[in-house]
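Hi team,

Filling in the usual template for the complex we talked about on Friday. All components are listed, including any nucleic acid strands or ligand strings, so the model treats them as one assembly.

SUBMITTER: L.P.
PURPOSE: interface mapping
COMPONENTS: two
RESIDUES: 848
SEQUENCES:
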Amino acid sequence: MAGGFSAYPGTRDFFPEEMRVRQWMFDCQQSVCESYGYEPYGAPILELMDLYRQKSSEEIVNEQLYSFIDRGEREVAIRPEMTPTVARMVVARSARLQRPVRWYSIANFMRYERPGRGRLREFYQLNVDLLGASGMLADAEVLCLAVALMQSYGARRDQFVIRINHRSLYDTFFADLSVDLKLLGRLLDKREKLTAENFARELKELGLDDREEARVKEYLDLDREKLKSLDSPAARELSILLDYLGDTDAAESVVFDPGIMRGFDYYTGLIFEVNDCHPENKRALFGGGRYDALLKQMGGPDWPAVGFGMGDVTLENFLRSHDLLPAAGNRSGFFFASLEAELDLENQRLADKLRPAVPVEFYLGGRSKFGKQLELAEKKGYRYVLLRGSTEKAEGNVALKDLTTGKQESLPLEGLAAALKARC
Amino acid sequence: MAGGFSAYPGTRDFFPEEMRVRQWMFDCQQSVCESYGYEPYGAPILELMDLYRQKSSEEIVNEQLYSFIDRGEREVAIRPEMTPTVARMVVARSARLQRPVRWYSIANFMRYERPGRGRLREFYQLNVDLLGASGMLADAEVLCLAVALMQSYGARRDQFVIRINHRSLYDTFFADLSVDLKLLGRLLDKREKLTAENFARELKELGLDDREEARVKEYLDLDREKLKSLDSPAARELSILLDYLGDTDAAESVVFDPGIMRGFDYYTGLIFEVNDCHPENKRALFGGGRYDALLKQMGGPDWPAVGFGMGDVTLENFLRSHDLLPAAGNRSGFFFASLEAELDLENQRLADKLRPAVPVEFYLGGRSKFGKQLELAEKKGYRYVLLRGSTEKAEGNVALKDLTTGKQESLPLEGLAAALKARC
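RESULT (copied from the run log):
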C-alpha cells in the first residue's frame, strides 16, 4: 500500500495481470461446461435470509454468513454458496423447464472466515448442476465433466484424484451402531490429518466399543472388490458406476474411498471430492454429490439432482503448485507510438479506423522520447509498434516495428487493417 | 412464482435465455474495450465504508448504500459504484503502473432504490477509465470508445446522441451569480422533464432576478459557434474537442449541450451523457467525464483521469426498444438421443470422446419415445441430433438428423469429430 484506502480483509483486487489469470480460469470452465450442453445462469449477490436459514449448514448460517437488515427492514445475506439459489430458481420455473436441466454459473460468494491459504472471505466458484435426472449415467456425466475440467487446465492424472463414495453406504453399514453417525462421519472426514494413534483415541472418545471399532476398520478397508459382496443398494450403485467409469477416460482419475464424507447437508447418494496429489498440498480441491431431496424440501418438484462447486482459490493454488498457470505471453494488438505531436490527431483517427479489425492502443503519455515509448510498449507486452511521422505520411505508409526481431517494415495505408490482422 | 422462496426485490434471476443476452452485452463491451487497448481488472463486492464516506455523493451514502457492521465490527458496504474502488487500486499501485492506465471492468453493484423502469437495486456496469493522461486526445478517445460501444450493438446514429459539456464552462459562466450553483445545476439537469412554465417558475424560486434569468437563457442558448467567442479555457477546450471529433466517425453522434450537468461529484472537465433518441424513452443511457482531482484527494498521485460507467439495465431497455437484441438462434452443438437403453453407456462414452471438438448434450430424460426426444432437442434449440442404435452399431456408423431439413445421414465413426465440427 502506497497510502490511501485498503481493500476489505480477505478479499482480492484483481489487477490486470491477475485478472487475465482469472479470466483464463473462467474461460476453461465455460468451454468445458458448454461442451457438455450445460447452460449458463446468473443470480443476485444478495438473497433474503430465509433462503439460508433452513438449507445451509449451521456453520455457515451462524458463523460465516454476511447477513444484515436492509433499509426496508428485511433480513438479507450476501450469498455464501449457490445451491440454495439454484434450487430457488428451479422451483420457481419447474413447470416450464425442460428436464433434465443442465446449468452452470461462475459467481462470487462471501463467507466470514479467517483468511488463510486456500481460504478467503470473497471467492469465486463454478457451480455445475444436473437436475431432473437420476441414475448412474447422470452421476457419471458429472464426474466425467469434473475430470474434463481438470484436464482442460492441463492437469495430469498423477496430479489429482477424484475420490467417490455413496452417502447411504455409510448409513447402512453403520445402521446398528450406537454412536452419533454425524460425529463419526466428521471424524472419518479428518482422519487423514490425524496420526493412527490420535484417530484411535478419538474413536474411543466417541464411545465405540471394540466390536464397533473393528467395524469402522472394516468399513475403511472397503475396496472395489469388497463392495461387490455387500448387500446394499448403495454398494451396488457404486460398483456399477465404478465399472462404467472403468471404460472411460476418467477411469484412472476416479477411485473409491469409503472415508469421503463431504458433510451431512444435502447429499443423498454419490459424494465425491477432488484431491490434489501434490505432497505439500494434499487437500480437497472441490467436491459435490447427489442431492435428490432438496428441491422437494424447498417446495418444488420431486426432482433428483447432482452437482458440484469448484472454488477459484484452491484451484489457483493447485494450478500454481503444479506450474499449470499460463505464461503471460505477448499481448495481441498494436501500440501506436507518437513521433510528431502535429500528427497525433490524424494518427488517432487512423487507429480508430483500424480498431474494428485489430486492437490498437494509442500512445498518450505526453512528449516522451521514442525510445521511452518503445520501452513502454514492451513493458505492456506488445510485440508490434505502429509509427507514422511526416516521412511515412508523405509516402502514404505506416511503419511497423517488430520488437521481438527489431525489424521495421513499411505498410501502405491501403489494406492496412488486413495486413495487421494477419499478424495477430 | 410456483411457491417456495422469492428473490430479493429489485434483483434479477438470469435464467439461461436472459443470461445469453447478458453475456452477449458483456462480450460486446469486452471486445470494444480490448480493441482500444484497455485491460480488464476486478475488485471485491464489499468495501470498507470509509472509502465511500467522503467520495461518493451524499445521496448514495445516506440513502442508497447497503452498509452494515461485519462480524469483526468493521463498517462495510456493498459497492454502489466502481470509481472509488478504481481510485483506491490505482493509488495503491501508482508507483508500479505504466501511464497512462487504460482499465475496464464489468461488475455488479447495489443501491437501495425504488425499483422501476431502468432502475433496479442490483445492476451491472461497464466502467472504462483512462488515468494519467490529460488533454483532448484522451477525452476524444473515451468519447470515441463510447460511440464504438453503441455501434457494436448495432445502434444507428439516429438512435442515440452523446451530449457533451465542460464542468468549468458552467462555473465560469455563472461565477458572478448570487444563487447556489449546485441547486441551479440540478434544475438545469432536469429541465427537459419540465414544461417551460415550470422551469421558469423554479428559476424564480431559486431567487434569480431578471438579469440573472436572462443570463441562464443565454447560457442554455450556447452553441458551437457562440463557444468560440467566449473567453474561457473551458470554452476553448470544448471547441477544439468538437472540431477534432468533427473529423471522426463519432462526429454525428456527439453534440454540445450546455445543459448537461452529471451531478457535482468528481467531475472537473469534460462531462458527457449518452441519450436515447427514442420518443418514448428519452433518457440518459449512461455518462461520464473527467475527474482530475480524485486520485490526489485519495492520497494518490496527481494524475488526471477520464472515464464513464455504462449500466446494463438502461442499456438493455435501449436495445430492446430499438429491437437490437440478438434473436435466440440455433444452439451450436449436438443432442445425442437414446434409442436403446443398452447402448446408453457406450454412446455416452462416444459423446465424451467427441466433446473436446464439439458440444454434445446427452439425452438423460428416461425412456421417452424417440419423437419426444426430438421435440426436446428442438425446444432446447438444437439443429442436429445424433443417433446410434444397434443397426448403426453393427455398421460402425452414427446417424445425424438435421431438424431443420428433416434429413438424416450416416457418418462413419472414423473421423466423426471432424465431420461434426464442420457443421458447427
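MY TAKE: Residues 16-35 of chain A form the longest helix (20 residues). The domain at 16-43+82-321 of chain A is CATH 3.30.930.10 (BirA Bifunctional Protein; domain 2).

Thanks, L.
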